[in-house]
Amino acid sequence: MFSLLYRMVRDRALAEDLAQETFIKVLNGIKSYRPEFKFSSWIFKIANNAAIDHLRRKSIDTLSLDGAPSAETPEQMRATSLQLGDRTESPLAEVENRELGTAIERAIARLRPEYRSCILLRHVEGYSYEEIADTLELPLGTVKTYIHRARNELRGFLADRRD
Amino acid sequence: MTDISMHLNTDEIELWAQGLLPAVRAMHLADCSLCRVEAERERKVILELVQLPKFAPRAGFADRVMAQVKVPTPSGDWTA
Fold first, then answer.
1. Are A3 and B54 in contact (CB under 8 A)?
2. pLDDT for residue B4
3. CATH at residue A16
4. Which of B13, B20, B55, B78 has the highest number of chain A CBs within 10 A, making it the mutation to test binding with A?
């Protein structure tokens, strides 16, 4: 669950805060758990909601490696893009650069948050499409579409790197 | 029964990448370079994803969480 949060927000301290918030919600709200759901899915659902809420609140989703969606010129894209290589000001930032600086991690960071959740749950956490649909409360067809599009985009990003 | 000459769909390509595609459909790859290239590209991405490391929070994370969790006292009250 921490891995998902960390890859969603790309900030160790923030991911830890969100993980802490998630577990506190889980443990304090254990009475609202419905046993027809997998316990781990319930936790992932709360964690993912926390990450998405945070990204929406802070508009970090618009700070992709390519810049904000509204950026139309190369200058605007540069000004609004997430500069991973510049984050060398602290030891923690160095750790983050090392952990999330590989080509595949950078490619994942360029995905839309909802694609990112789906692809991470599918291929990193090993969830089935149906479990992802339950966890994220999305129609099964939407989950499949997101995952296929995410993989296509990742292939494109990774191909760009190789060119 | 699926025609062996039909191209693999995205679900089938994912199954093939995981070694789970039924042999009768996998045979299509031997004859179709289009599907073979597509499937190989997909396999590379999936392989990179499944090999991603798991991360863990800093030491003491559980203690920090439990310090903020309300636990019931013998009297039935809840305390942090």
1. yes
2. 63
3. 1.10.10.10
4. B55
Q: Greatest CA separation found in chain B?
A: 73
DSSP for A51-102?
A: HHHHHHHHTGGG--TT--TT--SHHHHHHHS--GGG--SSHHHHHHHHHH-S
Candidates A1, A21, A28, partner chain B, best to mutate (most B CBs within 10 A): A28
Residue B49 lies in a domain: yes
Distance, CA of A13 to CA of A17 (rounded, Å): 6
Number of domains in chain A: 1
Read off the pLDDT band of B67 (50, 70, 90): confident
Residue A140, domain extent: 2-162
**Token representation of residue A151:** 């993989």
The mean pLDDT of A21-46, rounded to a whole number, is: 86
ipTM for this prediction: 0.76
Predicted TM-score of the model (pTM): 0.77
Is residue B4 a part of any domain in this protein? no
Distance CA(A82)–CA(A109), nearest Å, equals 9
CA-to-CA distance for A158 and A32, rounded, in angstroms?
42
Q: Where in the sequence is the domain holding B64, given as residue range(s)?
A: 10-79
Q: Kindly give, in sequence order, each residue whose CB lies less than 8 Å from that of residue B6, ignoring residues fewer than 6 positions away.
A: B28
